[in-house]
Design brief:
Layout: H1 2-9, H2 11-34, H3 37-51, H4 54-69, H5 73-103, H6 105-120, H7 127-134, H8 138-149, H9 151-162, H10 166-174, H11 179-208, H12 210-213, H13 221-231, H14 234-262
Helix pairs in contact: 2-5, 3-4, 4-14, 5-6, 5-8, 5-9, 5-11, 7-8, 8-11, 9-11, 10-11, 11-14, 13-14
Length: about 270
């Protein structure tokens, strides 16, 4: 009943939202598929080298090449497109929400229990509202992934800002800084390691939704795993599953390298 009222009252808004999400997703997917395979391998190598070590970059590049050798290059790019779209939207919504929670305890009273519910609810449940509101396809997959992956970045942005010493904030105010200047020039730079950790966890949770999101029509590596399960094709499922694990390891290690760069050294 509620869903019918929602769709009847805000049908045009949902159509605009679907068109916007699909446009962003397809642009990212087309760009990733347009990139030559060797350029992706080279980018992964350079990122691994600069953020970790030379041998780490070489290993990551070899692992990405191995996914291509499995014949799953296009599926990997489709998966990355869904993950990137979900993470970008999660960050655009989650970081401001985390700042708002840090600044307003009353908002936190509502948001924190909601985040608890979102993190304890089985991930399959997120497919239900996604299907009811958006039907089947890539858009509901992105919507379900956003709901599942957004809590960490909200929590860790809130935690990072609250962890900034009060003396530092008071000093900024005493020098005449406005609330916005204190946030942008003092609190956010100090909270950056915590925010980056939140981005890392949000990305990992988005990857964890790959297989589940394939049940509502998202293609890519998750769909390969789903087809393999239906056909009891162990080899096909193993290749796709291993590719997802490889992607998760590489993205996690690269993001950890970024986090370490912004970590404040212990005095």
């Amino acid at each position: 009943m509620f869903v019918k009222w929602l769709l009847h009252s805000f049908g045009q808004a949902f159509d605009v939202l679907i068109a916007l999400l699909l446009w962003v997703l397809l642009k990212i997917e087309l760009f990733l598929l347009w990139l030559p395979w060797w350029s992706v391998v080279a980018i992964v190598f350079l990122l691994g080298w600069r953020l970790k070590k030379f041998w780490a970059g070489a290993l990551y590049a070899l692992l990405v090449f191995m996914i291509g050798a499995f014949g799953l290059w296009d599926e990997m790019m489709s998966t990355l497109a869904v993950v990137m779209t979900s993470v970008i939207i999660s960050l655009l919504l989650g970081i401001p929400a985390g700042i708002l929670v840090a600044y307003n305890d009353k908002v936190g009273v509502v948001v924190k229990p909601t985040l608890d519910a979102m993190q304890t609810m089985p991930s399959f449940v997120y497919l239900i509202p996604a299907m009811m509101l958006f039907g089947l396809g890539k858009v509901p997959a992105v919507f379900a992934t956003i709901i599942y992956s957004i809590p960490p970045v909200i929590r860790l942005t809130d935690l990072g800002i609250r962890s900034v010493p009060k003396e530092m904030v008071e000093a900024a105010h005493s020098f005449g800084s406005s609330t916005w200047q204190t946030l942008v020039k003092v609190q956010l730079p100090q909270a950056l390691p915590s925010v980056m950790t939140g981005i890392n966890q949000t990305t990992m949770m988005a990857l964890a939704m790959v297989v589940i999101a394939s049940m509502v029509g998202a293609r890519g590596l998750g769909m390969e795993v789903l087809i393999a399960i239906n056909r009891i094709d162990i080899a096909r499922g193993f290749d796709a599953g291993l590719s997802i694990v490889i992607l998760a390891i590489i993205i996690d290690r690269l993001l950890q390298g970024v986090v370490n760069r912004y970590k404040i050294p212990d005095s």
